[in-house]
Design goal:
With 303 residues, the chain is α/β, with parallel strands linked by helices. The chain has twelve helices and six strands. The strands form two sheets. Strands 1-2-4-3 form a four-stranded mixed β-sheet. It has a two-stranded antiparallel ribbon with strand order 5-6. Helix 1 runs antiparallel to helix 2, helix 4 crosses helix 5 and helix 11 packs antiparallel against helix 12. The protein starts with 5 loop residues before the first helix and ends with a helix.
């Protein structure tokens, strides 16, 4: 997550020029104010466009609370593997998420710091190797007291611990969020699972092909998913059975294992592991990011 995105700055500047220029022309032709009329729309565009970078810059000037850093150190497997620069950027991303996302407890739930940190840390994990990315979807998170059904009500048949929506909020149950980071090496993390779904939404809904995947590589990814789902059904996979429910669930389950069990996953699912390293541009075994992470797994696969 960047403080300033070059593309956003270019768009803001262009819009300010267009609206300011238009206002200047109108002012020159029909008002006594003259070209100065263009200053108002240009200023509005600049304020709106620069609001997030300015706010992020302010947030970046503050240190993560020591208690929050300790919580991350103890529960997030990727964080201790990062170098000092990587840890600082991870902490900054956590702060951005805490500042920019709305967290709300429903039905008597209180959105405590550990609950908020659990989601913010998940966002930072998924984006760490891709600092230019922003997590797709809504920036609203709801914490439910217990499992819910398709109508978002709790009952004896309710089976959902979390649910992601393309436009609506991310819904998570308190117990599942707590379990997600209590045993960070068990490959079962509802926070990462539901956040991963946000990468999978497009105009036609979730189909198991992350929306940010290179379209040219989508057929290879789909073939890999079919083979890996078959391995799950045959009991020959590290991934838990829920990954065979649908391609969209496979991707979310694979992300959980990728970040929580990278060593056994690399050993037992080499091709899948390399594909996820290429997508997220991070190697959770070592904390390497960017081209170094991708090149390392490619070379390892070739030997």
């Amino acid at each position: 997550m960047r403080i300033v995105r070059r593309s956003s700055m270019f768009t803001t500047g262009l819009l300010a020029l267009i609206f300011g220029g238009g206002g200047a022309v109108v002012g020159h032709e029909v008002t006594s104010v003259g070209p100065a009329l263009g200053l108002a729309p240009a200023a509005v565009v600049l304020v709106v466009g620069l609001w997030r970078p300015w706010r992020r810059w302010r947030v970046a000037q503050t240190d993560l609370l020591p208690a929050h850093r300790q919580w991350i150190q103890e529960r997030v497997p990727l964080y201790p593997k990062l170098d000092s620069v990587g840890r600082a950027r991870f902490e900054r991303d956590v702060q951005f998420a805490l500042d920019e996302y709305s967290f709300e407890g429903v039905q008597g739930v209180t959105g405590t710091d550990p609950l908020r940190l659990s989601v913010a840390a998940g966002i930072a994990v998924l984006l760490h190797g891709r600092p230019s990315w922003e997590l797709p979807g809504s920036r609203s998170v709801l914490f439910y007291p217990e499992r819910f059904d398709e109508t978002y009500h709790g009952n004896i048949t309710a089976r959902y611990d979390g649910m992601a929506h393309q436009q609506g909020p991310l819904i998570l149950t308190v117990a599942a969020v707590r379990r997600s980071w209590e045993e960070p090496g068990d490959g079962n993390n509802v926070v990462l699972h539901e956040l991963a779904h946000l990468f999978d939404f497009d105009n036609e809904g979730a189909d198991g092909v992350p929306s940010l995947v290179d379209p040219g590589s989508a057929p290879d990814w789909q073939a890999l998913v079919r083979e890996e789902m078959r391995r799950i059904r045959e009991g020959r996979s590290l991934l838990r059975p829920y990954g065979a429910e649908a391609p969209s669930e496979f991707f979310a389950v694979a992300v959980e294992h990728f970040f929580e069990q990278p060593v056994p996953m690399a050993r037992r699912h080499d091709e899948l592991f390399r594909a996820l390293v290429s997508f997220f541009r991070v190697d959770p075994r070592t904390g390497a990011v960017g081209a170094a992470a991708v090149e390392a797994v490619v070379e390892a696969g070739a030997t």
